[in-house]
Specification:
Blueprint: H1 2-27, H2 34-63, E1 70-74, H3 75-86, E2 92-97, E3 104-108, H4 109-126, E4 133-142, E5 145-152, H5 159-162, H6 180-190, E6 194-200, E7 204-212, H7 217-228
């Protein structure tokens, strides 16, 4: 993993260095439009710095999966803000079908929001060749668990990739650390849940996240005592 991260860090450093060296040489040439060139180089550097920041963030998240701060919250509390975030962009449609029941869980809220942020982001990226970026999220209660599905109609996952999709460092993208889904799996399992997926190449992918419902045993005890009275 350390080798992979080092490789991902090194990749953007080379073009960054070459671009700055080119800018330095061009600054000595009066025939060059230095202002226009500076803007192009600056834009490229910002893009590469963002990539480096993402690599550092992914690695940090993976290293801190087990450092949790559990709290009690409803599923809607983490999904609704994501709808506001993504549906403000043109061409993106993230639909959410909530459950008739209020489903409360106990987990690290920040980490669990990161899981669904990652799943939505992956679903949108899988739909890059479609006319519209569409993602469907459904919440339902099944016995003592809440099940959430995140579905897209994108390019799907091949059988070869499916076997390794949750393996750290594995990625089907041209860049990235390949830690995103490994982080999701660790977070969900730390919360006592499960994550899996179904996919068909060329037709789309559905990720499933099952989490145990939080039961307030104190409230149950009070109700039983009231019935005894």
């Amino acid at each position: 993993m350390a080798r992979q991260v080092a490789h991902e860090i090194k990749n953007p450093l080379t073009p960054m260095k070459l671009s700055l060296q080119f800018l330095q040489r061009s600054a000595q040439d009066p025939s060059q439009d230095i202002h226009s060139l500076s803007k192009r180089v600056s834009d490229m550097l910002i893009e590469q710095i963002d990539q480096l920041a993402k690599i550092a963030s992914d690695f940090s998240q993976f290293a801190n999966i087990h450092h949790t701060k559990p709290e009690t919250f409803t599923i809607e509390e983490i999904i609704r803000p994501l709808l506001l975030l993504y549906n403000t962009e043109d061409g993106i449609d993230v639909q959410y079908q909530s459950s008739p029941q209020i489903n409360t869980v106990r987990a690290d809220k920040v980490q669990l929001r990161r899981v669904f942020t990652n799943l939505i982001k992956n679903a949108l990226e899988a739909s890059e060749n479609m006319d519209q970026f569409a993602v469907s999220i459904k919440e339902q209660r099944i016995e003592k668990n809440v099940l959430l599905t995140v579905a897209d109609k994108g390019m799907g996952i091949t059988k070869e990739a499916a076997a390794r999709i949750f393996v750290p460092n594995f990625t089907t993208k041209t860049s990235g650390t390949g830690l995103g889904l490994a982080i999701c799996k660790g977070i969900v399992e730390n919360a006592g849940g499960q994550i899996w997926f179904e996919s068909e190449a060329g037709k789309g992918t559905t990720f499933y996240v099952s989490l145990p419902l939080y039961i307030d045993t104190t409230a149950e005890m009070d109700e039983e005592e009231f019935e005894d009275l």
